[in-house]
Design a protein that fits this description.
α4 runs parallel beside α5, α6 packs parallel to α8 and α12 crosses α13. With about 350 residues, the protein is an alpha/beta fold. The relative contact order is 0.12. It is globular. The chain contains 13 helices and 12 strands. It starts with a strand and ends in a 5-residue tail after the last helix. The strands form 3 sheets. Strands 3-2-1-4-5-6-10 form a 7-stranded parallel beta sheet, with helices on both faces. Bound molecules: nicotinamide-adenine-dinucleotide and thymidine-5'-diphosphate. Nicotinamide-adenine-dinucleotide binds next to α1, α4, β5 and β7. The site of thymidine-5'-diphosphate (TYD) has 13 residues, from α6 and β8.
């Protein structure tokens, strides 16, 4: 099996490539990645010399480059995306371009070249807010709230239309919030862990009572492989950690493991349009594919914190340049920057 992995230099994609090369002897991987701010080849250092691995730098919106790199591959696992909700709110254009147009280009070329299986990696965020006690299953309505989640929902619908219209062999996974090694420190878990390690404030958006379902990235990789190998064409599969926690509770847990004081907790201006609660029903994954999460939140948090503690060089490599300007603009000067965004949305007077 020759796999074409898009976005393989990012957080989940790089964990997935290492997972596949370690456990699937008959697989080789072409990693196709644009190397945006979130792409980092250091994530793949341990397998860079593996003869079953190759890297092509390219944009999924570039049809000619995709066609050249994709030739000879049997299947696609499509991770490439602008993946951060906050950035999609601050500068939405890139999310729409990559997540919608990029997915369209991939579908077109994959169909032209006769790719046998296409796994589209989506998110629980396409279901929008879930009410207390409710869990989204694969038939729940798509009610995305942010430019990120609406662009992902748009790409899901394109994939669905290719299955129906062209008989294209695609499947979709929708996973919850992943955490684990090699996650870029703009997302909740690595941002909070690395700030706490440096005794910097932990910025809580709004009241901190939003809830997320937390999934260890290794459990997600195992789920994606199960869908790739055994999922039914045209189906959607929810992949969640089955552990829904309030952000504040998560922060207290992190601080306990790190041995850091609660005084680091700092309330900041909320994210515009912030979804209150995500929660997934993952019965289909268990019933059809025999998958369920294996890594408990306690174990996963200890392992992830340990990874960040012992990989300070990796952290130093990503927490510089653009990341520092981003942090300054949206954390240190948060009120002014969010105010400017709200104001920029007004019709000209
Ligand atoms: P990430 O931001 O860490 O990595 C994204 C990767 O895609 C980067 O390597 C980047 O360089 C690459 N990329 C971006 N635009 C590209 C383009 N136009 N062409 C080629 N490559 C491009 O993202 P992640 O957290 O690893 O997420 C991977 C996928 O999983 C995304 O599709 C995301 O929507 C989905 N997802 C993520 C989570 C999560 O918790 N991180 C949860 C559910 C779903
Ligand atoms: P995030 O990692 O951005 O994922 P999601 O796509 O689910 O929003 O954020 C997870 C939760 O943590 C979400 O409710 C927003 C919140 N959050 C903070 O409170 N502070 C932060 O600095 C970040 C990045 C997120």
């Amino acid at each position: 099996m020759k796999l074409f992995v898009t976005g393989g230099a990012g957080f989940i994609g790089s964990n997935f490539i290492r997972h596949v090369l370690a456990l699937k002897k008959g697989y080789s991987v072409v990693n196709y990645d644009k190397l945006t701010y979130a792409g980092n080849l250091a994530n793949l250092e341990s397998i860079a010399e593996d003869p079953r691995y190759s890297f092509v730098r390219g944009d999924i919106c570039d049809a000619a480059a995709v066609e050249q790199a994709l030739r000879g591959c049997n299947a696609i696992v499509h991770f490439a995306a602008e993946s951060h909700v906050d950035r999609s709110i601050y500068e939405p254009a890139a999310s729409i371009e990559t997540n919608v147009k990029g997915t369209f280009v991939l579908l077109q070329i994959a169909r032209k070249l006769g790719v046998e299986r296409f796994v589209h990696i989506s998110t629980d965020e396409v279901y929008g807010d879930m009410l207390p006690g409710a869990f989204a299953d694969e038939n729940s309505p798509l009610q995305p709230s942010s430019p990120y989640s609406s662009s992902k929902a748009g790409s899901d619908l394109l994939v669905r239309s290719y299955v129906r219209t062209y008989g294209f062999p695609a499947l979709i996974t929708r996973s919850s919030n992943n955490y684990g090694p090699f996650q870029f420190p703009e997302k909740f878990m690595p941002l909070m862990i690395t700030n706490a390690l440096d005794d910097k404030p932990l910025p809580i958006y709004g009241d901190g009572k939003q809830q997320r379902d937390w999934l260890h990235v290794e459990d997600n990789c195992r789920g994606v492989v199960a869908v790739l190998e055994r999922g039914r064409i045209g189906e959607v599969y929810n992949i969640g950690g089955l552990d829904v926690e309030e952000n504040l509770t998560m922060l207290h847990r992190l601080l306990r493991v790190l041995g850091k004081p609660d005084s680091l907790l700092t309330y900041v201006k909320d994210r515009p349009g912030h979804d209150r609660r995500y929660a997934l029903d993952c019965a289909k994954m268990e019933k059809e594919l025999g998958w369920k999460p294996a890594i408990s939140l306690d174990e996963g948090l200890r392992q992830t914190i340990g990874w960040y503690q012992s990989n300070s060089d990796w952290m130093a490599g990503v927490r510089k340049g653009d990341y520092l300007s981003y942090y300054d603009k949206y954390y240190v000067n948060r009120d002014t920057s969010l105010h400017a965004i709200a104001d920029g949305g007004k019709a000209p007077r």
